[in-house]
Structure formats: C-alpha cells, structure tokens
C-alpha cells in the first residue's frame, strides 16, 4: 500500500472504532474513489468518504466532527466512555486484528472477571466419541426453502422456458411439461463459545464439539469470546482433529481470562460480514452468562442476535445442577428473547440438543416461568 494511503485507511479504522458499521468493501471503494478524484482538495476526500462510507443521517454530525478532527486537528477525538481496554476481533481468514467496540471494566461476581488475561491452551486428544453426532448433523439441522430451484417430476411449478424449448425441439408436439421446485437446504449453525476462566473446565469439550460440527455441517461457523472475539472456523475445517485444535489454540489469545460477554457480542454484530453469519441461522451460545456489573450491553446484543437468528439458544453448564434457576439480573433480562436455555454441562446434552434443533419447542421463558 502506498505510504500516502495510510492516513486514509486510518480514518476508516477510526470510524469503525467509533461504532460506524463499515464493511471492508466500503473501505476499498473509499480508496478507489479518492484515486478517481485526484484528489484536488480535502473537499474531494470528504465527498468520497460520504459517498462510500455512507454514515447514517442521524450520525452525520458525528462523522463531520471526526473528519475535521482527524484531517485538520492534531489527533482523533475522544470517544465517550473510552477506556484503555478495547474488544479486539481476530478473523482467522486473514489473521488480522481489528480494534472495535470500546468497552469498560466491570466488577461483581465470584467466578468471572472483566480483566483481560492473555494465555494459551493445549488440548489433549481422546477417542472420537463424536463421530455419530458428526454423521447425523447435516440431516438434523433445521431447513429452509432456497430461492434456487431444482427439477422435479411432481409437486412443482411449470418450467415454462424449458417446456417451450422441448415443444420447439419436438416440432410442435406437446410432451410432458417440465416442473421445478424450490430447493430445501439446511440452515447455518453458529456456535459462540465462552473461553473465559469461569468456563475453563468445559472449554476443551466445547472445542471438540465445534470441530465435529464444522466437519459434519456444510455451513457452520465458530467464534470464541472472552475479552476478545476470534473466528476459528478455518482452523476447525482441518480434518485431523489434533491439528485443528492446535491451530485454533494458537489463534485464540484470551484463554481462561476475563469475561466481557455483552461487548464482545456487540463487536460481533458490528462487523457486517460476521453479523451475516447469524442471519437465519441456528445460534447456540455456550457460556455461563456471568456478566459483570451492568448487563445493558448484553441485553442489547442478545435482542439484536434474536432478531437476526432463526433460533437463539444459550447452553450454560450451571443448568446441570437441579437447583439452577435463571435468577441473575443478566439471565432474567435476556430470558424473554431466548428460544432455549438448557444444560451445557456435558457433551451428550449438547449433542442431543443440537440434533433436535429442527423440532419445535416452547420458548425458554415459558419453560422456566413455571420452575420455582
């Protein structure tokens, strides 16, 4: 990249840190637009930014402030509520980190922490007990009707173009009409795995389950979150489980650290390409949901996820205790938007649930409302 382009790329990164939804394709268009314009003046750069980065009307004044401060001032403007720690996003497709969603430390709770603690993990291999789950997964996932069509002999709509072509080929004779129907395909499966210290005893099992899910389903995505957000899908596509888990372990930096569930889920939703993974998908969050302090960000993130997902489920190992009740403020707040709140303390309970996703079930609030 030319040295002169670095400030322009820095401005786009500044906007993303401030919460503007900007896709990588928009940044490329921004750079191309400046190339086409010359540019002859700062007004050309401003017009290119407005046309390609497309700030929403309600944030236009904020965009202008950032533009003036970045290009005319001595530095970027302060972001309200900014702290020294930010949720970082690592995408295994490009092995590149992006600073996103500013966050703050929060206090409260015994097992979880918001303080970032970076570490690594080494997973021990055992027998492949998930082979039956891997074989059944593709056919067990919920399905949807695609806009693409396939040929069928019955129960379809008339394929007029091909039928007319057949009539012409048969010199005007009327053969049997050709039919087509919309194709049925499995929905995407999205796994969001909590790798914080309070989930340390379950992380290894969750990663093995995620590897089996990626191998068994054609459209599965896996992310880990703690104090950072990391996409590990590409690592888990390696067929050999030992190599796949070793690659994933090397990519994740925040093993057994603190928990910032709300901010990391908001960071996931702030990246358009990641947010698209949740659209129409069966989303399963593997976490104890021990959010620190104010749970407003977690509630916002869960509501937005629920609006995008076909089904939103939370698997908590705490539900393995018969005395468990969703009594924390965070769980009470998100329970109305959850489709499922179930036991995530064992691999068997998780596999049984995922294989039952296609079957309808009462909402989580209805199930837990009658539990005293």
TrEMBL record:
Region (Disordered): 75-112
SUPFAM superfamilies: vWA-like (SSF53300)
Stored InterPro entries: UCP010256, Uncharacterised_CoxE, vWFA_dom_sf
Signal peptide: none
Biased amino acid composition, Basic and acidic residues: 86-109
PANTHER family in the cross-refs: BLL5662 PROTEIN (PTHR39338:SF6), BLL5662 PROTEIN-RELATED (PTHR39338)
Name of the protein in question: VWA containing CoxE family protein
Organism: Mesorhizobium amorphae CCNWGS0123
């Amino acid at each position: 990249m030319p040295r002169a382009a670095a400030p322009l790329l820095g401005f786009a990164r500044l906007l993303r840190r401030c919460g503007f939804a900007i896709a990588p394709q928009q940044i490329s268009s921004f750079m191309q637009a400046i190339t086409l314009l010359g540019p002859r003046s700062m007004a050309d750069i401003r017009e290119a930014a407005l046309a390609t980065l497309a700030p929403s009307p309600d944030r236009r004044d904020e965009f202008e402030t950032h533009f003036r401060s970045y290009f005319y001032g001595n530095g970027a403007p302060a972001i309200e509520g900014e702290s020294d720690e930010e949720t970082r996003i690592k995408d295994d497709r490009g092995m590149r980190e992006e600073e996103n969603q500013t966050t703050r430390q929060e206090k409260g709770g015994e097992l979880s922490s918001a303080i970032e603690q970076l570490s690594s993990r080494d997973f021990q291999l055992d027998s492949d007990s998930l082979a039956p789950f891997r074989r059944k997964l593709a056919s067990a996932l919920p399905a949807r009707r695609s806009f693409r069509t396939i040929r069928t002999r019955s129960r379809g709509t008339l394929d007029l173009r091909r039928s007319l072509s057949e009539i012409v080929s048969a010199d005007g004779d009327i053969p049997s009409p050709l039919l087509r129907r919309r194709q049925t395909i499995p929905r995407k499966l999205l796994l969001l795995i909590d790798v914080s210290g309070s989930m340390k005893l379950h992380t290894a099992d969750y990663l093995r389950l995620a590897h089996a899910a990626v191998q068994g389903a054609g459209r599965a995505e896996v992310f880990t979150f703690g104090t950072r957000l990391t996409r590990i899908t590409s690592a888990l596509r390696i067929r050999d489980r030992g190599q796949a888990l070793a690659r994933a372990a090397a990519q994740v930096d925040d093993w057994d650290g603190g928990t910032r569930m709300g901010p990391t889920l908001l960071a996931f939703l702030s990246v358009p390409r990641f947010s698209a993974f949740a659209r129409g998908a069966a989303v399963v969050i593997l976490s104890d949901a021990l959010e620190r302090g104010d749970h407003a960000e977690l509630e916002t993130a869960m509501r937005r996820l629920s609006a995008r997902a076909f089904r939103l489920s939370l698997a908590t190992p705490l539900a393995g205790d018969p005395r468990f009740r969703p009594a924390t403020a965070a769980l009470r707040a998100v329970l109305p938007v959850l489709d499922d709140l179930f036991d995530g303390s064992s691999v068997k309970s998780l596999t049984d649930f995922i294989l039952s996703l296609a079957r309808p079930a009462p909402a989580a609030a209805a199930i837990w409302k009658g539990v005293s």
